[in-house]
Each structure stands twice: as structure tokens, then as C-alpha cells.
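Support request from a user on the community tier.

User writes: "When I paste my C-alpha cells into the form, the page sometimes reloads and wipes my input. The last time it worked, I copied everything first. Here is what I submitted, just in case something in the input itself triggers the reload:"
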């Protein structure tokens, strides 16, 4: 009976998420032809340092990459997603925090963060690579949205464009690091390393560079059990870059709390 109830709960959760994304999809579909914009709440610690520059703590996420940066001014506010459309077909996507432009754009207003995340991850596989990656990024900064199960599905789907899969895997890795270390996402990139830690992080990097993913088994062990949180995070990061299915298996295991 308990298993049956659990199955019903999962079905209800999935049905609710699907209905949520369909609701926003309907708003977009019913909008006049041309560009459409909507907004939603960003999670704590997210701010914008200019168009398409989004920061979480010391990490700055741009259009295609991320880097550590504390140089730019950063303003807190909602996430704005701008959909470029040819007629009513979505052909591109941009995401901004606390910075938006509505000139020539149909603004359909604010939606719930969960609804936005569901919609963005639903359309990500259908978008061109860069736009798909930006859709994943926007979903990852939605307030209180639990997206890792969908990210895992995207990361494992060979039919999804590689760049979109890689972005999904990157955000999975950050979620795993939060669970593994107990640090908030905003603090993941604030580590200071002494000489001993620096030597160990270099060793982790060397493992990540071995041909044919020969270093993956040891990286998996480090990510699971190493006593130093910094070393675990480095192993998790490089596992996410490996493209190895065993890395995704570990990520799922840790995110499920096993």
C-alpha cells in the first residue's frame, strides 16, 4: 500500500509540473507573433551584472561559460527571459537578472519560478545549442525549483544537443556539491587552498586528464568519501566534465541521499 501511495504521489507531482509548464506554454503560444518576455523570482544570492551576466556568489555565468569574478556591479531582482520568435516559433532565448527591455516585446508578466523552470527545461532540447544552454541556466536560478531530476534526464539523452547536455551536467554537479559539502551554492567558489590542498587538487586534475577516462573510478571514490570538502568538489567538477555515464550515476545517487 505504501508503495502504491508513493507511486500516486510521484504521478501527481509529475502531472502538476507538466500542467504548470503547459500553462506558461499556452500564454506564450497565445501571445502575438514576435518576441515574448516573462519574469520570475530568482533564488537567493543571484544577481545581474549586466545583460547576460549572472552572478551567484563569486561565480559569474555568461552566455556560454562561467568564471570567478567580483569586478562588476551586481543588482538583485527577478529573472527576465526573452524569447526570440519567428512568427510564433521560438528560435532563441536570452536571460537577464534585474535588467530587461520591453521595446517591441510582448511582456506576459510574472509567473511562478517553478512554472518557469518546468517550461524552460521542456523547451531546452528543442532550441539551438546556445539558447538551450541559456534555458537551462535560467531554470537553474529559479527560486525554490527542484530541477535536478529533469537535468539528469537531459544529461542522459543522446538526442539532446551536446552543449545543452553539458550545461545540464554542470548544474547537476553544482547541486551535488551543495549536497556533498553542505555549503550553499553562493559559497561554492570561495575556497582558499593551503599548499597541501593545492597539491591534492592538482592530483585530482591529473586524474581527470587520463586518457579513456581511466581516472574516473578514483575520482568517483574521492567524490564519495574524501574528508576534505574542497577535494570532493574538485572531483565532482571534473566528473561532470568527463562525459562518463558513471559520473551521472554517482550524481543521482548523491542527490537521492543514498
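"...and here is what came back when it finally went through:"
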Amino acid at each position: 500500500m505504501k508503495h502504491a501511495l508513493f507511486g500516486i504521489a510521484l504521478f501527481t507531482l509529475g502531472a502538476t509540473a507538466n500542467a504548470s509548464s503547459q500553462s506558461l506554454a499556452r500564454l506564450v503560444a497565445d501571445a502575438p507573433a514576435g518576441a515574448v518576455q516573462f519574469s520570475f523570482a530568482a533564488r537567493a544570492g543571484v544577481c545581474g551584472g549586466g545583460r547576460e551576466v549572472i552572478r551567484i556568489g563569486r561565480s559569474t555565468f555568461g552566455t556560454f561559460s562561467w568564471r570567478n569574478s567580483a569586478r562588476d556591479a551586481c543588482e538583485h531582482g527577478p529573472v527576465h527571459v526573452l524569447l526570440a520568435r519567428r512568427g510564433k516559433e521560438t528560435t532563441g532565448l536570452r536571460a537577464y537578472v534585474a535588467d530587461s527591455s520591453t521595446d517591441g516585446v510582448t511582456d506576459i508578466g510574472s509567473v511562478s519560478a517553478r512554472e518557469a523552470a518546468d517550461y524552460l527545461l521542456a523547451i531546452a532540447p528543442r532550441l539551438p545549442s546556445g539558447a538551450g544552454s541559456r534555458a537551462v541556466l535560467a531554470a537553474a536560478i529559479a527560486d525554490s525549483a527542484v530541477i535536478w531530476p529533469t537535468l539528469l534526464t537531459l544529461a542522459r539523452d543522446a538526442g539532446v544537443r551536446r552543449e545543452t547536455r553539458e550545461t545540464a551536467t554542470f548544474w547537476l554537479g553544482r547541486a551535488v556539491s551543495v549536497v556533498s559539502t553542505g555549503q550553499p551554492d553562493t559559497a561554492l567558489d570561495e575556497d582558499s587552498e593551503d599548499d597541501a590542498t593545492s597539491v591534492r587538487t592538482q592530483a585530482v586534475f591529473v586524474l581527470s586528464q587520463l586518457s579513456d577516462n581511466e581516472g574516473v573510478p578514483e575520482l568517483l571514490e574521492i567524490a564519495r568519501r574524501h574528508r576534505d570538502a574542497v577535494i570532493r568538489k574538485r572531483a565532482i567538477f571534473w566528473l561532470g566534465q568527463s562525459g562518463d555515464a558513471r559520473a551521472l550515476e554517482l550524481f543521482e545517487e548523491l542527490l537521492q541521499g543514498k
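Agent notes: The reload is a front-end session timeout and is unrelated to the input. The chain has two domains: 2-146, 191-255. The radius of gyration is 19 Å. Escalated to web team.
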